[in-house]
UniProtKB/TrEMBL annotation:
Keyword field contains Phosphoprotein: yes
Name the UniProt record assigns to this protein: Hpt domain-containing protein
Organism lineage: Bacteria, Pseudomonadati, Pseudomonadota, Gammaproteobacteria, Thiotrichales
Source domain of life: Bacteria
Entry-linked InterPro entries: HPT_dom_sf, Sig_transdc_His_kin_Hpt_dom
Entry-annotated residues carrying Phosphohistidine: 52
Molecular function terms, GO-annotated: protein kinase activity
GO biological process: phosphorelay signal transduction system
Domain HPt positions: 13-106
Key words of the record: Phosphoprotein, Two-component regulatory system
Length: 108
């Protein structure tokens, strides 16, 4: 799976894309931290809600890989299934800078 769905980015108005990318850059670290915190405390429903929120942001910018990871975390949280959560979170943490760099690259 590619980091970005270029088709999604092409559908966004070029005039607002830089603001959307900046918003993604400024809000995503806090959402990832929230996901980590809720997972660590065992509050899987709250983790699922945070993952759902981040998934929406990712989908709106075509960040497919991150959205898929958020979907997995959301489903696991809703099912109260702790198995594999740490691995999904680690991959999400690793994917974020790569995704942000790819988004920023679209602006050059």
């Amino acid at each position: 799976m590619s980091v970005l769905a270029n088709k999604t980015l092409e559908l966004l108005p070029a005039s607002i894309l830089p603001r959307l990318i900046a918003l993604f850059a400024s809000t995503t670290p806090a959402l990832i931290a929230e996901i980590q915190q809720h997972a660590a405390s065992g509050n899987l429903l709250a983790m699922a809600q945070a993952a759902h929120h981040l998934k929406g942001s990712c989908l709106s910018l075509g960040a497919e890989n991150m959205a898929e990871l958020c979907t997995e975390l959301q489903h696991k949280g809703e099912a109260q299934d702790k198995l594999g959560i740490d691995d999904f979170i680690a991959e999400l943490v690793t994917s974020y800078p790569v995704t942000l760099a790819a988004l920023q690259q679209t602006q050059t």
